[in-house]
Every structure is written in structure tokens, then in C-alpha cells.
Amino acid sequence: MIPQIPDNIRTPAYVLDVAALKRNLATATRVRQEAGVKILLATKAWAMPAAFPLMRDVLDGTTASGEYEARMGREEFGREVHVYAPAYGPGEIERLTGIADHIYANSPEQMEKVVSIVRASGRSGLAVGARINPGYSNATVGGALYDPCAPCSRFGTTVEDIDQLPWDDIDIFHVHTLCESLADGSVGLIEHVARSFEPYLRRVKAVNFGGGHYMNKPGYDVGKLIAALKAFRAEFGVEVYLEPGAGLVVDTGYLVSTVIGLHFNEREIAILDASASTHMPDVLEVPYTPAILGAEKPGVLAHSYILGGKTCMTGDVIGEYSFNAPLVPGSRVIFSDMMQYSFVKNTTFNGTPLPDLAMLHEDGRYEVVRTFGYEEFRRRLG
Question: Per the omega criterion (within 30 degrees of 0), is the bond before 12 cis?
């Protein structure tokens, strides 16, 4: 369905579809209630504080990949704050003891630091978690680049080293192995952990199955996930967390762009005010070709174009598409599924302006929540 975004908006703009977000949150509510688990927003994938009030009563908190994300979760979301990093910088753990509720360590070496600092903080109720590499892979995109359990991965204590961890000091058993996985991947991970790590599971208070559960993607069997979670909780009697990011915001928004120039070099090329390298980095990193509303693969419709950004990077190419009508300067191009891993990864390379952040409300109201100008580019350059 083509969203009713006003024709006169400034582009480029990321637009959150509030109605779509609420539909996705209903899935999270079902999983929480029927499975009896807690669900956290992974802010590494998506973080729009203006929309946090829509999520605060549905989710149990946020999970961060470092100090600044954790601080944002504390200040802007205000519920549980979990934080994990493969290593912490000088003074970071000390500062996190005043911000986070749960701090995860990546290895025996990091765990020694976390436990000693958490103890010294004197803060009661501050939980310590151990990230484990369970040797289970189900990353459906990106191959080894997006597989936390790929050979030589820097994420999580391996099975060979697991007994070096001080299990009497560990509250949470944490794994994160999935990426855009459907229910078979989620259930497979839950069953693998139950089968392979029983002695450790019986020594902790909670288990965190991480992110990558693509619970709002068409084809995801939510009932199958709920059944597996219920069975796991019944067997081990622990609190269970999931921490989806993309799984909460899949198909909830758009990147609206405008054609600003045309070029021909063997094929028709349209240049947009949106950029793959600065605004859609996963297009180049995964790589993948994002969907465009009303467009098809090249050659399907009457007019085919290569779409590229305005930066000087040769590889700033979004993909090739076909359209019913010719593109002209001023034509609008709307990329779908553009909330996850988009503006949280943007850069100002070449001084390329960052897109507006906006919300399309259920009553049709279009609200710009943040704009960016030259100052954002200049501020970062010292």
C-alpha cells in the first residue's frame, strides 16, 4: 500500500508509519503475554526517541551496544537498560554501573573486569551477564559478515572457554546468533541452547536469546516461537529475554527521495538526493537491492533506470529498477522497509545532508521530528 505522504515534503526524509509500528508492536505484546517473556528494543538497529512513547508501555526496555546507546535508553526510554560490547574502554564499565541494569561481558578476560567493577560499585540489583558463542548459526542475510558465530568471530565466549567463566557471579546466560531469522531459526536456537548448555542454564536467573528474531516478517510463525519459549521457561524456571531491533520495525517506514538529475552512459541513470553510501549503507554492506513502491526489476515495466546517489563515491549505486512512467527531475522515489539499520548508520560523507526524520501519524498528519543542516557536517570535523 502506498502511504499517503504529503507531496510537498522536503526530501530526503525517513518517514515512520505509526500505524505500521503499532501493528508490529501488537506482535511483541502477544509474545510477551502468551510466552511470559520480556522483550527489549535493540537500539543498534533503530532508535527514534520521538517514537519511544509509543513503545514504552509495550516493551520492557532497551539493549545497547555501548555507553552512549545505554545512556540514551536510560534517559529517553526509561525502563530496563541492558548493555553488551565485545570490550569496554577505560572507565566505561564504571560509568555504566550508574546507567545500566544489566551489563554483559564477552569473554573471561572481560568478565573479570565487569564482576570486580560491579561489586565495587555497591549498587544492588545490577546484574551481570555472560555472552556465549553457542556454535549455532542461522543468519539468513550477508553470510559470515552478519553471522555472530562465524569462524573467528569476536562475539561471545566459546564452548572451549566456557568453564573459565565465574558462574557463581553470573546472572544471565546470553546468546545472539540470528539475523533476520524466521521461526525455525528462533526455535532452533532455543532448542540448541536447552540441549547443549543445561548445567549452565540451571545456575543463572535469566536467559537472553538476543536479536535476529524477525517476528513481524511475513511467514514468521509466531505461535511456534511462543510454544518454544514456554517449553524452555517450564523446563528451566528462568526469566527469558528477547532483544529484537529490526524484528520490531520491519516494514514500518520509508525513505522518501527525489530525482535531482538524469544521465546516460549505455543505460539510463537517475541521480537522487538519497544516497546508498550515506543513507542506506546496508545496500552496499549486505549487499541488497531495496524495494521501491511502484517499481519492479529492470525490464519488467516500460522505463528502466540505474539509481545512484549524489556523492563522489563510484559505488554509490542503489540498484536498477523499472517504472511505468519516465523519471524526470522532481520525480518522487519511495524506498520501503527503511527503518531498520538506516539512519542509525548514516554519515555526512561529502557533506551530504542527512535526511529529515519524520512520522506519519494515523490521522494522516506528517510531523518532522528532526532536521539536519550544515552544522551536523561541520561539527564532526573538528
Answer: yes
d(CA 127, CA 80): 11
- Between vectors from CA 24 to CA 23 and to CA 25, what angle results, nearest 5°? 90
pTM over 0.85: yes
pLDDT digits (tens, 9 = 90+) for 124-163: 999 999 999 999 987 556 567 778 888 999 999 999 999 9
Q: How far apart are the first and last CA of the chain?
A: 44
